[in-house]
Amino acid sequence: MNKHNFAPTILRAYDIRGIYQDTLTEADAHAIGMAFIATLRQRGHGVTVAVGRDGRLSSPALAAALIDGLVQAGGEVRDIGCGPTPMLYFAGVTWQCDGAIQVTGSHNPPTHNGFKMVMNGKSFFGDDIQQLGQVSAAGVANGDGGSVTETAIFDDYVNRLLQQADAGDLSIVWDCGNGAAGPATVAMTQKLTGTHQVLFADIDGHFPNHHPNPVDPATLDILRRAVADSSAAIGIGFDGDGDRIGVVDAKGRQVPGDFLTAYLAQDILARHPAAPVILDVKSSDMAVNLITQSGGDAQIWKTGHSHMKKRMAEIHAPIAGEMSGHIFIADDFYGFDDALYVAIRVISQMVRSGQSITDFVDKLPAQHATPEMHIACSDTEKFPLIERLAAHVKTSYDSRDLTLIDGVRVRTSDGWWLVRASNTEAALVVRAEGSNPDALDRLIKNIESALAAAGMNWRV
Fold first, then answer.
1. 437-454 and 379-396 are packed helices; what angle lies between their axes, rounded to 10 degrees?
2. Catalytic residues, which ones?
3. E strands of 220-372, at which residues?
4. What does pTM read for this prediction?
């Protein structure tokens, strides 16, 4: 029996993540492969698994170890090589694989890496990951019939992205950030009409130009300048593995994921009237109102790509989106988060509707909101603190004004505030939105006093 114990900090809520050669090693990757096959068998599934990887320096070694583990346990592996995470999801769907695993550190620092997993067409997360750890610790026997074949899907993926695409004569700047989406972006833009400038398309795990996090305003500075210099209609950036999108309009304004979802929902709701549209708990009330005005049933749900995909399937939502830039489209697509496909949908909607993303932002009321603020808080303390905070607000606010599905979100007469535990780092996430600047100041003070009641001293 092959027994292996993981560092508990790497078994995260959405996926497995750690620091390469510290908390995450090739031995861990090998054990993940073996335990994944054992779990497939325990659940009565087959053992065909698609495997992909991003462009991080550690990804080839971790992918090779993962594949060795899958094969040693008897898995039949289809290796698609390096590419964006949504290309791996696409392979899993297209080939009807029993499982799919992407080796990726997403937007984390270059020293980090991890694994995003799918089993039987559904996100493998939360309790699934904890069970994987238990299976590995109990021991996995070698299996028979294991094999690995390298199978290309790049061309099929790019062609699927381009189905019904229409870029008109738009001028567009793309920033791939030296991440895994670069080659697919180049291939895609070569087949689109319009004018395209692609920045940093070569995959480089050192990320020499900027960190590939398209939600961090600082990482969009180069994109903003390029949009201004070329008088482009839109700038589009991707994270390290291509499942999160960042957008700046023609005036250089960043368009958060919740508002981008509201923009796309206008088109989708015209075909799916009154359909549910999901936003994550960090999203703006303004985005909720925009969706409602478009005829949609706007619903708030837990942050996290795995949570969102699961909820989408449960309530048959045609679109969902997070502030972080994970946007999920099930309308004429597969329901997973594919930033390249989202980009195509935004561009095509701009052309067909005649409403540019700049026009859309121009019409938005003034927003009085904080950015997403992070408070350092250890992994062992952050969830107990949220429990204490929830207990406090239950005694201080009407239950109708509380949303406790993911942290604590409190609605007041002039806005709302949120405190939740990050599932990807040792931190609390704080956000507030008021009807005016004075209201926002009051909401921030409400957060400070509520946190103090829960045992944390925090001041903006």
1. 110
2. 106
3. 234-238, 245-249, 254-255, 276-280, 297-301, 319-321, 327-329, 368-369
4. 0.96
DSSP calls for 271-293:
HSTT-EEEEETT--HHHHHHHHH
- What is the rounded CA–CA span in Å between residue 99 and residue 120? 6
Looking up tokens 């594949």 gives 67
Q: Where in the sequence of the chain do the CATH 3.30.310.50 domains occur?
A: 368-454
Return the CATH superfamily for domain 368-454. Alpha-D-phosphohexomutase, C-terminal domain (3.30.310.50)
Task: Give the contacts of 374 (CB within 8 A, at least 6 positions apart).
Answer: 422, 425, 427, 428, 429, 430
- pLDDT, tens digit, 9 for 90 and up, residues 252-309: 999 999 999 999 999 999 999 999 999 999 999 999 999 999 999 999 999 999 999 9
Tell me where in the chain the CATH 3.40.120.10 domain(s) lie: 8-153, 169-362
Q: What is the largest CA-CA distance in the chain?
A: 67
CATH of span 169-362: 3.40.120.10
Query: What are the structure tokens assigned to 127, written together?
Result: 């309790």
pLDDT digits (tens, 9 = 90+) for 27-47: 999 999 999 999 999 999 999
Residue whose token pair is 């806005």:
415
Which CATH number describes the domain made up of 8-153? 3.40.120.10
* Cβ partners under 8 Å of residue 27, min gap 6: 4, 65
Look at the block and give the residue holding tokens 């935004």. Answer: 346
Place of tokens 């960042």: 246
